[in-house]
Amino acid sequence: MNGQSNKVKYGLKNVHFAVVTEANGVISYGTPVPIPGAVNLTLSPAGEPVEFFADDGRYYEENTNNGYEGSLEIALIPDSFRKDILGDIEDENGALYESADAKPKHFALLYEFDGDVHKTRYVDYYVLAARPDVSGATTTNTKEPQTDTLNIAARPAPDTRLVRGRIKQNQTGYDTFFSAVYLKGAPTNTVTVSQITFSKGQPDDVTIEVTSTDENNAVKNVLLNGLPIPGVYLTAVGPDVTIGQEYIEDLANNTYTITVELLRGNAVTVTLTVGA
């Protein structure tokens, strides 16, 4: 693939969002969540030219980089995005409510273009979305699908000042690009086993083995379907974590997602199936 160059880009796919958390001026990113049904992404550079005149002429000039502005068109905004980013509230019945007091969150936007000969994957690190318009049309003798459009602005991240990253096939981090936000200089964390089965008939502690390129990395949080697992049930050794069987035995027979957040680098996820 070396020596090939792109002539066109098409086939937007694999669009994801990752919630941004800011603490003491440092940005961290949640696990990327898919946004299915991507239709179109349009982003134009934002920034103003700076000119200084002296000695009867243009003495100095530069173009400032304030990121990008544009829109993301998708088939339908998923509920996960409405809740995690736009701040919609869900009640016990599963109904969603839009609150005037909601504060939209920043997020990282990840995506790729299928027509790119390098299959390049992109991440915009600090994105904010405006509330979408509501539109619809009556059904006629020909059905025209309606889509949702988000107006978005991608700005430099406050801590690193990075606007966008991109990575090509065969580069480190490409295969895990959509499981964790790729960061400059950050360690890469992976799990040895991504699916674990727990039997209540033969219960045992569940150990998640994590391999990190940072040999001094350690566990920060462990989440079950997005909610923290109490520390009394956890034992952590470096990046590895063990969950006590007594915690899992109380869970209903079902499939769960366990997320291990580490001090540095990406979070990792494991699918846990609990059965009889």
How many beta-strand segments? 23
Can you write the helix and strand succession as a string? EEEEEEEHEEEEEEEEEEEEEEHEE
Percent range for β-strand residues: 35-45%
Largest sheet: 9 strands, antiparallel
Number of structurally distinct domains: 2
| Cα end-to-end separation | 50 Å
**Percentage of residues in helical conformation:** under 10%
Can you tell me the overall shape? Answer: globular
Mean pLDDT: 84
Question: What would you call the structural class?
Answer: mainly beta
Radius of gyration: 22 Å
Low-confidence stretches: 1-9
Task: Report the total helices.
Answer: 2
Kindly describe this structure.
With 276 residues, the protein is mainly beta. It folds into two domains: 1-184, no CATH class; 186-276, Immunoglobulin-like, CATH 2.60.40.10. It is 4% helix and 45% strand. The protein has two helices and 23 strands. The strands form six sheets. Strands 1, 2, 3, 4, 7, 10, 11, 12 and 13 form a nine-stranded antiparallel sheet that branches. Strand 22 and strand 23 (268-275) form a beta hairpin. Residues 1-9 have low confidence and may be disordered.
